[in-house]
Amino acid sequence: MKSNFIQIHPKDNVAVALEDVKKGCDVIINGFSQRMEVLEDISFGHKIALDDIKKGDMVIKYGAPIGHAVTSIKKGMWVHTHNVRTNLEGKLEYTYNPVPAKKVDVRNRGRFFEGYKRADGSVGTRNEIWIIPTVSCVNTTANTLAKLAQELYPDSCDGIFAYPHNAGCSQLGEDFEITQKILASIVHHPNAGGVLLLSLGCENNDFEHFIPVLGDYDPKRIKFLVTQDVEDEIEEGLRLIGEIVENIKDDKRELLPVSSLKIAFKCGGSDAFSGITANPLCGHIAETVTALGGSAILTEVPEMFGAETFLMNRADSQETFRKVVEMINSFKQYYIDHNQPIYENPSPGNKRGGITTLEEKSLGCIQKGGQATVTDTLYYGEHCKKAGLNLMIGPGNDSISITNLLSSGAQILLFTTGRGNPLGTAIPTIKISTNTNLYNRKKQWIDFDAGIILENKSFEEAADELWDLIIDVASGRRKTKNEVNGYREIMIFKQGVIL
Questions:
Q1: Is 285 within a domain?
Q2: Among 85, 119, 143, residue at a domain's last position
Q3: In sequence order, what are the beta bridge partners of 416?
Q4: How many domains are contained in the chain?
Q5: Is residue 336 situated within a structural domain?
Q6: Which of 47, 241, 410, 493 can pair with 14 through a Cys bridge, CB separation 3.0 to 4.6 Å?
């Protein structure tokens, strides 16, 4: 008997529609018919009440409260924003209640990939040349240089790409520091075999102020160009890129352990199935890479609100727990300082996809970390150094999030989506659909269909397939759709005054 709803946890008093369900239909969960009927039309991804829920009672999904009923809800009725509200408000105090680390079976997972070992010991999954502006004024120059250089040196490396952005001048204080830290971290990223740094010459972030932040670098692989100081910046830029090409063209892949991998996780354009298929599937991957000595990196702090204690209690120490608490409460303070509501989430698209409250969104979002042990927190532009699950500060905005994750040194990004999003960044971005319908409609965007979990595959089988894809991508045997289609973007977080 074909199911039309799925109940995620036995304690849940709601179930999620697996298709558009009409009023009067029987409710079939996990192949078994229930003694109830649908009292109103319920769209794909939206929730139905499995019990009578009184006004003020908790609505339970994932085995945890996702809000409370603001009216009485009859068994069989649609459950959404019209009859449910969040339980969240203000900043909280937390107590460390550690949970035992999960034992992970990795016997069937590949333990090696072919990557680029850099002189500083870091490891890349690509050997590319990146053109990075210090300021947005030279964005078009960077794009022009990348296009011409790729034509001039087509087989010299894995590609030559420009990364225009929105910052670098007229910034003050912490915003300016964040811009410099993020750009410096990107320059040092191991997927970049070489970098041309492109300056206008009069910006706040000129080389006089940026190079001290950049720190030690290899002058054979990192070159500098001040466009105001030369007669023809295109000619000079191509000459410098040619010098970089000569120094990286003979770089070779070698067999390296999976412990060298830092895998980042992100969701965007989420729907009600994000926390049922794609995000838990990513959780399997996070558990695998960390069990093998590698790192997993999770960001989108506002989308941890309401589920943060599940992460805090997986901290490996009291010190790590305190760092997670500080990260959560400092980001809540960010909203308070700007006189904005802390819990103004989920987005309109999320709601159309069936997500009702921030608790529901967050409980689904943190599934990407699985049950991996939390070992550290990261600030903007801070490279990940510890194995295990790292939590990185930053908003949920897709473009800013992927840039933050890039700056952490992650060599691959797993990006889940239920409603669709083509966005990618400088690292291979494996786009994972939460449902098969999206995968079939947007194959030019999607690399992997997690909807197979609802069809004919177990989580373990799907995780094996995704792990094999990750190893192939890391080894350069496959390109992701963002690489094939040129979806490579960065956007730097800004919150303060601009001159």
A1: yes
A2: 85
A3: 267, 432
A4: 3
A5: yes
A6: 47
SS3 label, residue 254: strand
Return the number of other C-beta atoms located less than 10 Å from residue 106's C-beta.
Answer: 15
Cβ atoms 374, 388 nearer than 8 A:
yes
Query: 395 near 405, Cβ under 8 Å?
Result: no
Residue 382 to residues 172, 180, 182, 419, 464, Cα–Cα distance (Å): 20, 11, 8, 31, 31
Phi, psi of 155 (to 5 degrees): -120, 25
Q: Which of 250, 284, 306 is the last residue of a domain?
A: 250
Per-residue pLDDT at 1 exceeds 80: no
Residue 100 lies in a domain: no
Angle, helices 398-407/173-187, rounded to nearest 10 degrees: 60
Name 28's bridge partners.
Answer: 33
Number of Cα atoms under 13 Å in the Cβ half of residue 330: 12
**207-237: string of b/e by CB count within 10 Å (b at 16+)?**
beebeebbeebeeebbbbbbbeeeeebeebb
> Which SS3 state, helix, strand or coil, does residue 139 take?
helix
Residue 300 lies in a domain: yes
In the predicted structure, residue 119 carries a pLDDT above the cut 80: yes
Nearest 10 degrees: Cα torsion 106, 110, 112, 114 = -150
Query: Per residue in 241-262, pLDDT tens?
Result: 999 999 999 999 999 999 999 9
Q: What is the pTM of this model?
A: 0.94
Domain of residue 278 covers: 258-485
**CATH number reported for the structural domain that contains residue 190 in this entry:** 3.40.1400.10
Here the tokens at position 389 are 């699950």
- Mind listing the pLDDT tens digit for each residue in 454-477? 887 899 999 999 999 999 999 999
